[in-house]
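ok trying this again, last paste got cut off
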Amino acid sequence: MRRFEGKRLVVASHNRGKLVEIDALLAPYGVEALGAVALGLPEPDETGDTFEANAALKAHAAAEATGLAALADDSGLVVPALGGAPGIYSARWAGPQRDFAMAMEQVHRELGDKDRAGAFVSVLALAWPDGHDELFRGEVAGCLTWPPRGDNGFGYDPMFIPKGYKQTFGELPHTVKYAIDHRARAFQKLVAACFASG
């Protein structure tokens, strides 16, 4: 595992919700998060067929463009009863306008009376300009509810109840969600491998 030694890290995401969450996760380590939008970076086509491939693709594109280490997340909602969909296509289900109310409605409609178990998956890719990368996967299991509840979070959060809780990610305070969600679990692995001293 390669250690991250810098003080600035490009966050290769055009999703404001992800940027806010990753910035909060990085803050205790004294690392400044530089957003892709603020740096004028284009959004690369996600041509991979796994979360790992897409996360790596985005991180490498940002690292090459800026000459700085870059962190990218690829994440989504995986519903076994829908054959794993929407999965890596979670954002695409929301269409070009990023209409997640429409995407949640589609999940609900396609599920019908099927099993409502689901999981959020996040893969974080940390890439360096020399082409090296490290990948970390986090998952959180739960179930899907309808109608959506809560205005916190983003994406499919208002319809996802994490295991052990009664509130959706859309209802839980950010301080709770950021401690238990899929991105936080991937980030804990990244920190242990690349940020911790020793």
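PB: full thing came through this time. Helices lie at 16-26, 51-66, 100-111, 174-180, 182-195.
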